[in-house]
Specification:
By secondary structure, the protein is an alpha/beta fold. The strands form 2 sheets. Strands 2-3-1-4-11-5 form a 6-stranded mixed β-sheet, with helices on both faces. A 5-stranded mixed β-sheet has the order 8-7-9-6-10. Helices cover about 35% and strands about 30% of the residues. The chain folds into 2 domains: about 120 residues, Periplasmic binding protein-like II (D-Maltodextrin-Binding Protein, domain 2); about 80 residues, D-Maltodextrin-Binding Protein, domain 2. The chain contains 8 helices and 11 strands. The longest helix has 21 residues. Helix 4 links the parallel strand 7 and strand 8. The site of 1-O-pyrophosphono-5-O-phosphono-alpha-D-ribofuranose has 12 residues, from strand 9 and helix 6.
Length: about 210
């Protein structure tokens, strides 16, 4: 068994908050961690290996066991049922999933189109509402869809609300709150339980202190 514990980190906007949290929990992340284009970084002193993946892919690396633990958004966990343990709510990158569209536009009675990066979340939401919709899967810039007439509604992440505002869209419904979670591969968790639990405990102390301060 490798002495390294492998952690899958999300690249992009979650990265900074996740790295900040790890540093507060006293993990000695090197300064180049933030700017490097390297996708694998090792911290010898801590026996830690970080892999940097697209946020949507973190859960895949963990599920397949090539990463022992990872930091993944609740949105990704809700979209697909995955064989991973959710260990801790890191309470970072808070945002929510919402239905949005152009203001004053009633949704069609017959199979309105809904564009989303989250086809499963979108279809189960509308199914629960008793509305039959056609889901169109997109990979980004979802707000474009109602603006140019590809779809009547979108299901997407809203963080500051700026993207909706700048593109003249409004929120019609809130589906779920989202924060980042610490997840673990079930086999890794069994084999490396002591190390993983220690990491969970170190992070939990920081999160609890922040909650008390906040
Ligand atoms: C996300 C999301 C929205 C935007 C919301 O997109 O899909 O477009 O952020 O953030 P805001 O409420 O603070 O404006 P992201 O930037 O991750 O890129 P994407 O559209 O390519 O997925």
């Amino acid at each position: 068994m490798s002495r390294f514990l492998t952690i899958a980190m999300p690249k992009g906007r979650i990265f900074e908050e996740a790295a900040d949290l790890l540093r507060k929990a006293d993990f000695q992340l090197p300064p180049e961690f933030d700017d490097s284009r390297k996708l694998v970084l090792e911290i010898e002193e801590e026996d830690l290996r970080f892999i940097l993946a697209k946020p949507m892919d973190v859960v895949t690396y963990v599920e397949h066991g090539v990463a022992d633990i990872g930091i993944a958004g609740k949105d990704v966990m809700l979209e697909e049922e995955r064989d991973v343990y959710e260990l801790l709510d890191l309470k970072i990158s808070a945002c929510h999933l919402a239905v949005a569209g152009l203001p004053g536009k009633k949704i069609s009675d017959v199979a309105p189109k809904v564009a989303s990066k989250y086809p499963n979340i979108a279809s189960s939401y509308f199914r629960e509402q008793g509305e039959q919709v056609e889901i169109i899967k997109l990979n980004g810039s979802i707000e474009l869809a109602p603006m140019i007439g590809l779809a009547e509604r979108i299901v997407d992440i809203v963080s500051t609300g700026q993207t909706l505002k700048e593109n003249g869209l409004i929120e019609y419904a809130r589906i779920a709150d989202v924060t980042s979670r610490l997840i673990a591969n079930p086999v890794s968790y069994r084999i490396k339980e002591k190390r993983i639990t220690e990491i969970v405990e170190r992070l939990a102390v920081v999160i609890n202190n922040q909650t008390l301060e906040g």
